[in-house]
Amino acid sequence: MFFLIVIIMIAPLFTEDWTAEDLREKEFFIYIGVTVLTIGLFLWILFGTYYKIENDYLHHRSGPLFGKMKISSIKKIKYHSGWYVPVLYRPSTDIVGVIITYNKFDDIYFSPQQRDEFVRDLLKINPEIEVID
Hints:
Layout: H1 2-15, H2 20-24, H3 26-47, E1 49-54, E2 57-62, E3 65-70, E4 74-81, E5 96-102, E6 106-110, H4 115-125, E7 130-132
């Protein structure tokens, strides 16, 4: 999905017949600036997404999105795969992952590379977590 958006954004650079006057226009520089910033954000999310378990906390980062949660507050983990994820907060880069319910009603979607190992590591710290396949 990221790559499709990037291709759509840079396609006009190669398909348009740009003149020297066009290259001096303020709108051209705005277009280039927005394109570079958007691609940079996508790359930051794509290569800067990780999850780390440290001192009874689960830390997460996905580009500019980051946070942590106490593992003892996790109530339920549900395995998920598919395009539609019924969770608002998704610091992830894949459609195969887990939905974590923590506190009373909070949900978050993660997509760790080794899903089963990730869940096992959380269960070692909090064995009371309900796991749903």
